[in-house]
Design brief:
Layout: H1 2-20, H2 27-38, H3 42-75, H4 93-120, H5 123-133, H6 136-155, E1 158-159, H7 163-171, E2 175-177, E3 183-186, E4 191-193, E5 200-202, H8 208-245, H9 251-270
Helix pairs in contact: 1-2, 1-3, 2-3, 2-5, 3-6, 3-9, 4-5, 4-6, 4-8, 5-8, 5-9, 6-8, 6-9, 7-8, 8-9
Length: 281
């Protein structure tokens, strides 16, 4: 089991490294699996491989279903030619911040592992830290929430083309009408209306209710992204890293915690699909 599961993880990670020409955070799990081989903890390594692959499969399934749903809804909108009828969870300041964080995260975690090993000489603690630290939940924090927001908006005839638009709309504080009939502009420069040249396109005439709905959805998406990053991606993983450093969280429970954080991000994001903006009184 370790040879099959671990081999698959190693192959996927090395393939990504070769394609991107950068050392990805997946290398953390690879190092943990190599450590389990050298320490003779084959069963623990096999269990971790299984849980990591299971978590990856759940992530891929959930994100693909969400993306397909978003694409189907966007394709039904008359203005969807602007995006080719495809939803994108990429882009946005928060998403780029998460990418930059992930880039610096790897050397920091390797440094923590080195310090823990120097003071404890316990390779099991190091392997547990490596498994928990893989930031899957952080990477998914923005795209999962953005895609859920896009689905909800598309059901209401509102086209949000990408993550940057969702985040900018979520940061908007006011909307003012433009001289051109039926167009509006937010205080941060986004245009909204039925025109295909607008940043946020409505399939029907803009009304106060539809504008409020679009703003409320984007604000909610922004809130969920921050919840994903702070509560699940950071707090849960940092708690796991701390417990592992103290020798209180072995590698297998650490893998469970890692997957739990990722699943929490997905579930927290997916609830936005059915979220209903409350009418202001």
């Amino acid at each position: 089991p370790l040879a099959v599961g671990g081999g698959r993880i190693c192959y996927d990670t090395l393939r990504d490294v070769w394609r991107t020409r950068t050392v990805t955070t997946g290398i953390l799990v690879v190092l943990a699996l190599i450590g389990s081989i050298f320490t003779g903890e084959f069963m623990e390594g096999a269990e971790v491989s299984f849980m990591m692959l299971l978590g990856e499969a759940l992530e891929d399934f959930t994100m693909e279903k969400t993306r397909l749903t978003a694409d189907a809804l966007l394709s039904s909108l008359p203005a969807s030619s602007k995006t080719g009828g495809h939803a994108s969870g990429e882009g946005g300041n928060v998403h780029r911040l998460a990418d930059r964080f992930s880039r610096y995260f790897l050397p920091v975690i390797l440094g923590i592992c080195a310090v823990v090993f120097i003071f404890t000489r316990d390779i099991s603690r190091v392997m547990s830290i490596l498994v928990i630290a893989c930031p899957c939940s952080l990477v998914l924090s923005s795209p999962a929430a953005v895609l859920s927001c896009v689905i909800n908006a598309a059901r209401r005839g509102i086209l949000l083309p990408d993550g940057e638009t969702v985040e900018r709309l979520g940061a908007a504080k006011s909307v003012q009408p433009l001289p051109e009939g039926g167009l509006y502009r937010t205080d941060n420069g986004l245009t909204l209306g039925c025109s295909v040249d607008a940043d946020v396109i409505f399939s029907e005439k803009c009304t106060t209710a539809s504008l409020s709905c679009a703003l409320a959805l984007a604000h909610k998406a922004r809130t969920i992204i921050l919840e994903n990053i702070i509560l699940f991606a950071c707090l849960m993983n940092f708690a796991g890293i701390t417990l592992s450093s103290l020798g209180l969280l072995p590698m297998v429970p650490g893998a469970l915690l890692h997957n739990a954080a990722t699943i929490c991000v997905l579930l927290n994001s997916i609830r936005l699909v059915r979220w209903e903006p409350q009418a202001k009184r």
